[in-house]
Amino acid sequence: MQFMLLFSRQGKLRLQKWYVPLSDKEKKKITRELVQTVLARKPKMCSFLEWRDLKIVYKRYASLYFCCAVEDQDNELITLEIIHRYVELLDKYFGSVCELDIIFNFEKAYFILDEFLLGGEVQETSKKNVLKAIEQADLLQEEAETPRSVLEEIGLT
Amino acid sequence: MSDIVEKTLTALPGLFLQNQLTGGAAAAKAPFSSRLGGLVRGITALTSKHEEEKLIQQELSSLKVTVAAPTTTLKMMKECMVRLIYCEMLGYDASFGYIHAIKLAQQGNLLEKRVGYLAVSLFLHENHELLLLLVNTVVKDLQSTNLIEVCMALTVVSQIFPREMIPAVLPLIEDKLQHSKEIIRRKAVLALYKFHLIAPNQVQHIHIKFRKALCDRDVGVMAASLHIYLRMIKENSSSYKDLTGSFVTILKQVVGGKLPVDFNYHSVPAPWLQIQLLRILGLLGKDDQRTSELMYDVLDESLRRAELNHNVTYAILFECVHTIYSIYPKSELLEKAARCIGKFVLSPKINLKYLGLKALTYVIQQDPSLALQHQMTIIECLDHPDPIIKRETLELLYRITNAQNITVIVQKMLEYLHQSKEEYIIVNLVGKIAELAEKYAPDNAWFIQTMNAVFSVGGDVMQPDIPNNFLRLLAEGFDDETEDQQLRLYAVQSYLNLLDVENAFYPQRFLQVMSWVLGEYAYLLDKETPEEVIAKLYKLLMNSAISSETRAWLIAAVTKLMPQAHSSTIVETLIQEFTVSLDTCMRQHAFELKHLRENVELMKNVLPVDKSCEGMVVDASLSFLDGFVAEELNHGAAPYKPHHQRQEEKLAQEKVLNFEPYGLSFSSSGFTGRQSPAGISLGSDTSGNSAETGLKETNSLKLEGIKKLWGKEGYLPKKENTATDEVEAQPISQDSVIMENVDQIITKRDQPPALTQSKEEKAKQLLASSLFVGLGSESTINLLGKADTISHKFRRKPKVKEIKSGEITSAHTMASSSFNSLSNEEDYYLDTLQDRGDKELKKLSFNSELLDSESFTELHMVEKLSNCNLSASSLFADNNLEIFHPSQSTAVSVANEVSLASSLLEEPTEHMHSDLMEVCNNETISVSSYKIWKNDCLLMVWSVANKSGSELKNAMLEITSEENLKVTEQVECCLPIIEAESTKNFQCSVQMEQPFTEGILSGIINYQMMDSHSVQLEFSVALSLLDFIRPLKISTEDFGKLWLSFANDVKQNIKMSESQAALPSALKTLQQKLRLHIVDIIGNEGLLACQLLPSIPCLLHFRVHADGLALWFRSSCSTLPDYLLYQCQKVMGES
């Protein structure tokens, strides 16, 4: 996979993950062009797009578009399932996920993505294992967080 | 599940309000990011883009202050980082925070570190210079006893890591392969996969450990190792054939549901794993019957098991079909796969239909009957509202095009072309149409009209080789001279008509094509006089919308037409107009035109009618300027620096920090080496500013055959020779009748109201019959099978020219005549012959004492680079342009003179040497030099000539060198007396101490005149790396051994057009221009070897793939591969 973008129906970027080294300028250009093209497509149309020399696979979940760029010889259908599995993971983690969860906790969404896809390849397909990894990290996070926030509340920091 | 998501998400607007009021689930989960929450809400509340920008800029400047403040705690820093990521996602520059992200990853506690690492991976790319600062942190975390820290470090390494720092972490990561936790092992494998992608040789030694990972008891680790295997097998499948059994067993287990249920996805067992394995099997079984037989069973089972009606089963089915068509065919499986494709094509789901079409495009050449089976669906898809479906259908039609259905298919493509706006699509489609038109055009008129459409639509975005090829086609013609003339005449007439249209707009490239054709072939016209044509060109010239490049083409055309015109008032005005033009280029052209007009004889020589294909003798080395150059240099002008040297210097200036571990590296930047989504090959812009140069460019479009992505060559049964005649005999007139009907019907269809349903159906039927003509079950195979070979209507003429060379020794003549008789066909044969010729020459040279067999046979390939004067090598000149070596004979005579004059010199003539070049002179003395490329060193010969009538005293020649050059064996170069009008020679051998691209050897000559005042002259000679490169003759075994023993390597992909990248031509270029020795050729891979004098070997492995060359250099010297790669890119770029 070359990159993954999440954007809203209004064209606002919600998440971006680039697996190929590109300059910021190029990233912006690609994002702009793709968001425009995908949003212009009608609902009944095919989920795949040929764009430059890449294949774009996108799917809309409510107000959010999930959009992946893969190489031409990659399997489009399984890419579609990658998107779906990611949504499932988000859903399980946040408990019926909505766009706001992703907006306000986008770093969590990134953590989940990094446990699922690494360097553009599927790292772990077992839902249980992915979530286990995230929870372990989160657990430490909470341990570290609790005493601090207490301190903070009483104004000691 | 997805339904739930959908529902939740649709209720979003309401939820949003709720969230704001109650804090909501989302906000509650993240108390620490409340400031982010504030920012997000703030932005959402805004209405205009301008306000948003203001808010973010405010936010950014406050963040900038916060992150820089010493009082900021790491916890606050973490929170700032999140907001920075958010701002950057919205498209604002937050680069001031990058360094703080690295610090956070370094200093923070676990959760701060986590955010720090995340920010780093989002902010930076793998070539970012700040990334180096992360290396220490990563090393520390990899050694941590805390699992989470190790995980985080591995995660970041698998995403971005500086290539040159890999050795720092590699042993640590290798250790992790034995870690007790599977998550660590899995991530370690993926980190190594990343390393394999960016620096394959660095992980080569751990291949054995990959095998262990493949056998890991944890499914996740095993699955991760498949990524590496897929990549390695893609690069070279033959070394992994022994693993086929293992992959088959794993796939069997997966398909049989033997994995833990966790890995099920919608009750399908581990689909990702299945697909990965199917891909690997497809690569392993390609062209290999024995390996393929191992997998038939499991493929059959996969097909059978994938019956659930869910997207993911279709994904597996699709991959299965792909694999079945890739490996050695088995009819039973093929049948099942074909049925499967049918399921896709006929599916009402649009995604599946698309994939069905995609599968068809791949398999259609193997199995054309499938196209017939689905012809009605294909016709429907041709008018599908979704342009993607339409496009895929056209792609399919493109692959079944033959001489009979070309007109209909091209018409459909043109229709689509007129509707598209996206540049990439236009470029792509225009190329295809041009290719088909060249191959199958039914007649001249159609061809020219189609190309007109191509040029008007494709215009200035298309690949430059389309117009170049077209012009070459016109110019070179075919076998039939009258046919050629008719085609040219038709083109001329059609362009004149186009130019008559008022207010018509044509792209610049099209106008350039027109002006070239009019300039060359307007003489064929009966009615219109050259004056009229010139008048039209003049009108265009005065048009302000014309680019200056096109103007140059136009004026070149006028120049060509001028001798044919009787009166030339327009030309006169034109000259007057442009001699005062502000455009210097135009002014130059106008002056040339003026001078040519005054000198009719010269004009006829320079611009002969209809001789565009004849080679012109050109003094390519511009030797007539040597005197001028020397004079200018003497007067203190700066010496000429070649393009690459200038770039190098520029680069050295621009680069503030050099992160490369050694020297200057021209390779290895991940940007170029790896595919990026923006990496559209733009092709080289070859349009020169004169028609002549434009024509000589021979970047050819994919002319031969259509790329087969799927399937096995030679699968098509080849027994149909008997059937051929029948098919050929089928009356074509019948088809054309159908086509005419269809055309009418299509035009009728444009008037919608009058048509009834049944008529539409009929129209489709008719369209089908015209589209799929020639695909009938019996006739198909041979029609398609030989389509690529037979019906190239516009076939290229062989390019190789006969050699006319007078002064060849008898041995040469024999050799070259044997070449000629054999090699008059195509470049390809030439290449295969090279070896044979090589041997032949060897044999001959044994007989002939004239030749030094060793040095000659090896070096005679190195022709162009060296302007060598062994005439046999001009055989390998594949240019139309014959290069004339002006100083050839003089060099020989000088060389002879040299050897006679000075007994100190070894006979230089038996080695290759360069032309004699004057390096400095004044009125009394002249110093010239030439290089002799001896097998063991570079010999510089200096010849000092006293031009004056009196003798010179105490002459002294001193050669100094740059630090990386060493001058040895310097002979006595102090001469008490140089007699009047005599020449003295000196020689010295030069060694390269350290590789470089270009070095300077400078010298001083001192002498005293009769009147005893002393004169000193300085001079310098440029030496290139290639002067020190010699072929290294080793066997394949030795190559293998050396290869493994070398630590320094460089890998690079070079994008090239298909024809350029063909193995033979690439090999030839490397052999000739870089003096590489071809060790072996295996399939589409080549092994080459050379050495840098005195004895630093360098090996090159290269492989040809679809869109370029994969080069891989290895050497014992760390910098040599980089320099060679650079040279290689240069010569490949030139060729």
List the helices and strands and how they pair.
The complex is a heterodimer of chains A (157) and B (1135).
Chain A: E1 3-8, E2 13-18, H1 24-39, E3 48-51, E4 54-61, E5 64-71, H2 76-94, H3 99-104, H4 106-116, E6 117-118, E7 121-122, H5 127-153
Antiparallel strand pairs in A: 1-2, 1-5, 3-4, 4-5, 6-7
Chain B: H1 2-10, H2 12-22, H3 24-29, H4 34-45, H5 49-68, H6 74-89, H7 98-107, H8 110-123, H9 135-142, H10 147-159, H11 166-176, H12 182-198, H13 207-214, H14 219-235, H15 244-255, E1 264-265, E2 268-269, H16 271-285, H17 289-305, H18 311-326, H19 331-346, H20 350-363, H21 369-373, H22 375-382, H23 387-399, H24 406-419, H25 423-440, H26 444-458, H27 465-476, H28 481-500, H29 508-521, H30 530-541, H31 548-561, H32 569-579, H33 584-598, H34 600-606, H35 626-634, H36 643-654, H37 670-673, H38 691-696, H39 721-729, H40 732-749, H41 757-771, H42 777-787, H43 810-823, H44 827-847, H45 853-859, H46 863-866, H47 888-901, E3 912-913, E4 917-921, E5 925-933, E6 938-946, E7 952-961, E8 965-968, E9 974-978, E10 983-992, E11 998-1008, E12 1014-1024, E13 1029-1031, H48 1036-1045, E14 1048-1055, H49 1058-1061, H50 1063-1074, E15 1077-1082, E16 1085-1092, E17 1096-1105, E18 1108-1115, H51 1120-1134
Antiparallel strand pairs in B: 1-2, 3-5, 4-5, 5-6, 6-10, 7-9, 7-11, 8-10, 11-12, 13-16, 14-18, 15-16, 16-17, 17-18
Helix pairs in contact in B: 5-6, 6-7, 6-8, 7-8, 8-10, 9-10, 9-11, 10-12, 11-12, 12-14, 13-14, 14-16, 15-16, 15-17, 16-17, 16-18, 17-18, 18-19, 18-20, 19-20, 20-23, 22-23, 22-41, 23-24, 24-25, 24-26, 25-26, 26-28, 27-29, 28-29, 29-31, 30-31, 31-33, 32-33, 39-42, 40-41, 43-44, 44-45, 44-50, 50-51
Number of helices of chain A: 5
Radius of gyration of CA atoms of chain A, rounded to a whole number: 17 Å
Shape of chain B: globular
Question: Biggest interface and its residues per chain?
Answer: A-B, 89 and 100 residues
The end-to-end span of chain A amounts to 44 Å
Query: Total number of β-strand segments of chain B?
Result: 18
The oligomeric state is heterodimer
Mean pLDDT of chain A, as a whole number?
84
Number of strands of chain A: 7
Structural shape of chain A: globular
How much helix, percentage-wise, in residues of chain B?
55-70%
Strand order of the largest sheet of chain A: 2-1-5-4-3
Q: Treating each run of at least 4 consecutive H or I residues as one helix, how many helices of chain B?
A: 51
H-E order of chain A:
EEHEEEHHHEEH
Low-confidence segments of chain A, given as residue ranges, are 145-157
Protein name (chain A): AP complex subunit sigma
Keywords (chain A): Coated pit, Cytoplasmic vesicle, Golgi apparatus, Membrane, Protein transport, Transport
GO biological process, one term (chain A): intracellular protein transport
Membrane topology (chain A): Peripheral membrane protein
